Amino acid sequence: MKKIIGLFIILLFAATVRISAQLESFSKFDFVPGDKVIFFDDFSQDNVGDFPGKWNTNGKGEVVTNAKNPGKWLKMRNSTTYLPSIVSNSFPENYTLEYDMILAGEDRGGNFNIEFTALENKNQVPDASDPTGNTGLQVLTENQGDGTMRFLTKSVINTDGNAVDAGANTDLNDQTIQGKPSEKFRVSITVNKERLRFYINATKVLDLPKALPKGNYNAIIFRMWAWLEDHPFDALISNVRYAEGTTDARSKLMTEGKLVTHGILFDVNSDNIKPESYGTLKEIAQVLKDNPTVKVKIVGHTDSDGTDELNLDLSKRRAASVKAAMTKDFGIDGSRMTTDGKGASEPVNPNTSPESKANNRRVEFIKQ
Predict the structure, then answer these.
(1) How is residue 235 annotated by DSSP?
(2) 102 HSE (CA, 13 A, CB side)
(3) Where in the chain is the domain with CATH 3.30.1330.60?
(4) Which residues of the chain form beta strands (DSSP E)?
(5) Taking a C-beta distance cutoff of 8 angstroms, is the pair 237, 100 a contact?
(6) Looking at residue 273, what DSSP letter applies?
(7) Mean pLDDT lowest for which of 59-63, 107-111, 251-255?
(8) Angle 38-41-44 (CA atoms, 0-180°, nearest 5)?
(9) Main-chain phi, psi angles of 242, to 5 degrees
(10) What are phi and psi of 210, to 5 degrees?
């Protein structure tokens, strides 16, 4: 029995150290994802070789797997526009966009554009070579063959039906990130009215207070342009998440007595906290530091994939991992926190779509 207890302590310590080391690499990461998931796609519902059902395009693309990175990915092609089916007539003032991306192959040189814009008809996919002509913002990522990524932004205003530049381009070539072939990286974007913040992994590469012209935004466009067709390459994207607003952690926990967050993320079927959760954990920890007498119960929730027994166990372990991180990395006294897990027994949405499942995967902090 003593050996079993000793082994358990060693495993628990190792897990805590592992979580701490991963989170530490994101210690300056202040991104907090939106609270309500509007669009989510990891292509799990699509067959390999097919074009994904929740997207539209003016060219080619297919769902693939990747030997070094699990899950399914959308493989994108040159001179092509990709339009996720975000059902919204108008975006809110505050929202977030996140996705994983892999660039690989013999020649990784080319441009990958993200455009926040307004489309009169979302069934008509814009051409890849030109902006839509509507009010919007383009964020161009220029991928060099050596793995360096350079950034350029361009605002567009629609005047009497004619697109004009809103001033000169914002050239941010000094903001570079050195990548590696076949290495997955995470892009996180926050929009707060006119302000745009753009992160790659833990690094904030853009923070533009007046980036977005005022307009009725309703679409996000992904574009591939200037990639060389005569050189093999892969440009893959997955885990695309668009969410509305951000949670006021202080108000939710202290005034309403309960904070529900979707910003603490875990590896699939694991209690391992993803490092990009740091911003959310830090925000909640600050609330507890500012209110040292408050105690909370941390409750994990899962979607309905898998058995009830496994989901219940997973949700309990995830809650325990959050407590461990709050104690180890943010100095919150462990005696102030208890943990529990509900598995998939208390969904906030029916488990009938990727978006609903993403909203059901959550962590709750309940004031005691």
Answers:
(1) E
(2) 23
(3) 2-27+248-367
(4) 36-41, 55-57, 61-65, 72-76, 80-84, 94-105, 110-117, 136-143, 148-159, 162-165, 170-178, 185-192, 195-200, 203-208, 219-225, 233-244, 258-261, 296-301, 337-341, 362-367
(5) yes
(6) B
(7) 107-111
(8) 140
(9) -115, 125
(10) -125, 45
Q: Using CA atoms, how far apart are residues 290 and 286, in angstroms rounded to an integer? A: 6
pLDDT for the residue 170:
46
Average pLDDT, the chain: 81
Lowest mean pLDDT segment, chosen from 79-83, 157-161, 182-186, 313-317: 157-161
User: Coil, strand or helix: which one is 110?
Assistant: strand
- Going by pLDDT thresholds of 50, 70 and 90, the confidence category of residue 174 is very low
Superfamily holding 2-27+248-367? OmpA-like domain (3.30.1330.60)
The model's pLDDT over 74-127, given as tens digits with 9 standing for 90+, comes to 998 878 889 999 887 889 889 999 999 887 665 556 677 888 888 888 778 877
In the three-class reduction of DSSP (H, G, I as helix; E, B as strand; rest coil), residue 68 is classed as: coil
Q: What's 28's DSSP letter?
A: T
- What pTM was computed for the model? 0.80
Assign domain 36-244 to its CATH architecture. Answer: Sandwich (2.60)
Q: Which two tokens stand for residue 23?
A: 């989170």
Measuring CA to CA, how many Å separate 188 from each of 128, 159, 194, 261, 267?
A: 23, 31, 17, 17, 17
54, 101, 169, 188 from 98: Cα distances, Å: 16, 10, 24, 4
